[in-house]
UniProtKB/TrEMBL annotation:
PANTHER family, per database record: ADP-RIBOSYLATION FACTOR-LIKE PROTEIN 2-RELATED (PTHR45697)
Residues annotated to bind Mg(2+): 30, 47
Protein's recorded name: ADP-ribosylation factor
Family to which the UniProt record says this protein belongs: Belongs to the small GTPase superfamily. Arf family.
Keywords recorded for this protein, A-Z: GTP-binding, Magnesium, Metal-binding, Nucleotide-binding
Keyword GTP-binding: yes
GO biological process, one term: establishment of cell polarity
Record organism: Galdieria yellowstonensis
GO MF annotation: an example: GTP binding
InterPro entries: ARL2/3 (IPR044612), P-loop_NTPase (IPR027417), Small_GTP-bd (IPR005225), Small_GTPase_ARF/SAR (IPR006689)
Keyword Ubl conjugation: no
NCBIfam families: small_GTP
Length: 185
């Protein structure tokens, strides 16, 4: 079932969704958000604090909370967890030195009770800089199969160069959220 089908089936007039966009600093979160907004991705700067990007698909209004990933800001992430419908976790797969830190941060974040059940989309970004990476290996590295309390998926992308995979990932996330919250309401 595609995004359009979901939208056609939806019954409520306006649906607002809150999506958290998280990951370590420089993973490509703002680039992902800009691709979704069809904005210039060559002009991104570091996010200090947070930005809210609103993407509209017909009667869906999706508020994407782009939260700064610097170490000093991570303790504040929890302030944004309330009423989250879904999580997009962006990882720089070329940043091998921080991969294990990224995995630790992801699982630490998912432990928060306010995020229980929220579907997780992992965007394995900067594929152009690590083209040989294997999806199944990433699933293992990120211990995604241990996540029994939520739907998850992982898409490999190069946010700087291509929006298609990101849109596919977002569609997957919306499908899951819509099925739970709207179609069977
Ligand atoms: P953040 O919001 O997670 O902190 P940004 O990350 O979106 O600000 O991106 C950090 C840097 O990574 C940016 O480069 C951006 O252009 C680059 N980037 C994002 N996605 C990709 C990608 O798919 N491939 C490559 N090669 N680079 C990417 P600068 O130079 O502005 O720091």
């Amino acid at each position: 079932m595609g995004l359009v089908t979901i939208l056609k089936k939806s019954k409520r007039k306006e649906k607002e969704l809150r999506i958290l966009l998280l990951g370590l600093d420089a993973a490509g979160k703002t680039t992902v958000a800009k691709q979704l907004l069809q904005q210039d991705v060559t002009d991104v700067g570091p996010t200090f604090g947070f930005d809210i990007h609103t993407v509209e698909y017909r009667d869906f209004k999706i508020h994407i909370w782009d939260i700064g990933g610097q170490e000093s800001l991570r303790s504040y992430w929890k302030n944004y967890f309330e009423s989250t419908d879904g999580i997009i976790w962006v990882v720089d797969i070329a940043d091998r030195d921080r991969l294990s830190d990224c995995v630790t941060q992801l699982h630490k974040t998912l432990q928060d009770e306010r995020l229980v059940g929220a579907p997780l989309l992992v965007l394995a970004n900067k594929l152009d800089r690590n083209p040989g990476v294997d999806r199944e290996k990433l699933v293992k590295t990120f211990e995604l199969e241990t996540l029994c309390d939520r739907p998850w998926n992982i898409y490999l992308c190069s946010a700087l160069y291509d929006s298609q995979v990101i849109v596919q990932g977002l569609s997957w996330l919306l499908e899951d959220i819509a099925e739970k919250n709207f179609l069977y309401a």
